[in-house]
Every structure is written in C-alpha cells, then in structure tokens.
Amino acid sequence: MMALPFIAVGLSVLGSISSANAQKQQAEASAQASIYNAQIAQRDAVVARQQATADAALHARDAQRRISSMVAGFGASGTELSGSALDVLADSATQAEQDNQTIKYKGELRAMGYESTAALDYYAADNARIRGKQAYTSALFSGFGQAIGKVGGLPGFSIGSGLGASGGTAP
Questions:
Q1: Is residue 99 within 8 Å of residue 105, measured between CB atoms?
Q2: What mean pLDDT comes out for the span 152-161?
C-alpha cells in the first residue's frame, strides 16, 4: 500500500512534464507560423519592387510613344520644334518622368510595409519561443513543487529533516 502514494507522485511528475512539453510545442508551432508569415511578407516585398519596376518601365514606354506621336503631329502640321512646341514636349517628358518616379516610390513604400511586417513576424516568433521556454520551465517547477509537497505529506516523511521520521539525527 505504501507504493500507491509514490506512484501518484510519479504520475503527477509525468503529467507536469507532459504539460510542459505540450506548452513548449504549442509555442514552437506559433513561432513557426510567425516565421512562415515573415517569409511570405519578405517575398511580397520583392514582388512589390519587381511590380513597381515593371509598371514604371511600361509607363515610360507609353510616355515615349505619346511624345513621339506629338513630335510626329508637330511635323505633320508643319510646326517647328522650337518655342511653345518644344516647351510642350519638355513638359510632357518631365511629367512622364515624375509619374515614373511616383510609381517606383509607391512600390518601394509597399515593399517597406511588407518588410516591416516580416520584422514584426520574426519578433513574434522569438517571443513565442521565449514564452514557450518560460511556460515549460514554470510547468516543470510547479509539477515538481507539487510532487515534493505530496511526498512531504506522506506518513514517515518530513521535508527538511534529512532522515524522515526514522528517528536518527542528522550528521
């Protein structure tokens, strides 16, 4: 009959270890999800930059076609490329370049937003792992503390005497 309390204490310790492992695994799963999200955000940042570059190149080609069409229109009408006609072309080229830079800038802002999200997700992963280690340690200490309390409450055992209730003296 004396073995039953020790079996109960052993099961309590095993339960604490199991609970601690489960908390650690849950934290690791959360960390892995955050890392995955960060990797997706990093990929999205690259895509945003590539898309902005492609959109800017497309816009530049369209602007060049419009300007070329204007030059052809001036030539067909007999207008010389000087004075007002030249001012119109220069203004069109300047506006096209400003639009091009705006497209690139907006793409860079999107990319920076994705990179910020990735950094926060990596931070969340680190925090999840830290919380998992803390929960693991806490569950173990709590379980062992409860087990020690149960052993100390068993007949014939006294925590702190070193010899229990057997009646000897401590060295």
A1: no
A2: 59
